[in-house]
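dude i think i finally got it to work??
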Amino acid sequence: MSLSILAEKSTALGPYMRSILRIVAAFMFMQAGSMKLFAFPAGMPPDGGTAHFPSQIWIGGVLEFFGGALLLVGLFTRPVAFILSGMMAVAYFQFHQPQGFWTILNGGMDAVLLCFVWLYFSAAGAGPWSLDALFRKGPRPAVTN
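look at this
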């Protein structure tokens, strides 16, 4: 297989891989919210409980769970992803960065990574496997093989 054919196949698969990244990242993100709101699949440390209404942690759980659900199905992806990117930036600078500069040491690697993943989706959109694409008006792009 020549490099040009491989490049063509990779280019054609790019939008679908974007959708897969969005779905997987949103599913993992929702778990953080479900832990804070519903103690599922486990409760919050140290006692296994849930966040207290209307604490900042509870608000974060609402954004993680319900914002993650919207991203999972790809509905209102750009504005929701932008809001969640900002939320993760706040989470990093409020909770992790004061513990030191290096993300591997301050526990903020997930927050920084998700901040930039959601920022990417706020610019790139949800991809073809999304409700945003389903509801979009106008002609659909042709799929090339």
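The radius of gyration is 18 Å.
im so relieved honestly
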